């Protein structure tokens, strides 16, 4: 059972996530990486987020470009910590993604890292896991 669920909105985002995966692997943190789009497959994405906690995940990293609805969509249906990673996939070089992720309504918290901040997302997830482990 993995501790971290990494969700990307498109297979084309996979190369940007390599550094995140390297850090999680190096630190011995178990994770699953899933491609699921909030726009193209909202039912699958909703189910993934709603069942993440019961599957044993403790933190979710959600990376997306363009409108970047994925992190907020996931945060709206789970109480797990969600770290949003804005990706530079559009002609706006990720500014659209960043603003989409940080402008969440009250009650739908999404932690955010900088544009293409996949390394910081991994490090932040590991720190959250460490806090949870020290709590028990």
What does this molecule look like?
A five-stranded parallel sheet has the order 2-1-3-4-5. It contains five helices and five strands. The mean pLDDT is 95. It is α/β, with parallel strands linked by helices and 136 residues long. It has helices spanning 18-26, 42-51, 70-75, 95-102, 118-135, and strands at residues 4-8, 31-35, 59-64, 82-86, 111-112. The radius of gyration is 13 Å and the shape is globular. Helix 1 (18-26) packs parallel to helix 5 (118-135). Helices cover 38% and strands 17% of the residues.
The number of helical elements comes to 5
**What share of residues is helical?**
25-40%
Biggest sheet strand line-up: 2-1-3-4-5
Strand content: 15-25%
**Major sheet attributes:** 5 strands, parallel
Based on secondary structure, the structural category is alpha/beta
Radius of gyration: 13 Å
- The low-confidence parts are none
Mean pLDDT across every amino acid position? 95
Order of helices and strands: EHEHEHEHEH
For the termini, the CA-CA separation is 18 Å
DSSP strand count: 5
């Amino acid at each position: 059972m993995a501790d971290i669920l990494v969700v990307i909105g498109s297979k084309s985002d996979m190369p940007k996530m390599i550094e995140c995966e390297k850090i999680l692997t190096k630190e011995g943190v178990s994770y699953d990486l899933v491609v699921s789009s909030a726009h193209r497959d909202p039912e699958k994405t909703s189910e993934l987020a709603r069942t993440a906690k019961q599957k044993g995940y403790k933190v979710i990293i959600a990376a997306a470009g363009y409108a970047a609805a994925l992190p907020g969509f996931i945060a709206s249906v789970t109480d797990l910590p969600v770290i949003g990673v804005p990706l530079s996939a559009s002609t706006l070089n990720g500014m659209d993604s960043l603003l989409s992720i940080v402008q969440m309504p009250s009650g739908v918290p999404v932690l955010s890292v900088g544009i293409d901040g996949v390394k910081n997302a991994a490090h932040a997830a590991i720190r959250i896991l460490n806090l949870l482990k020290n709590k028990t």
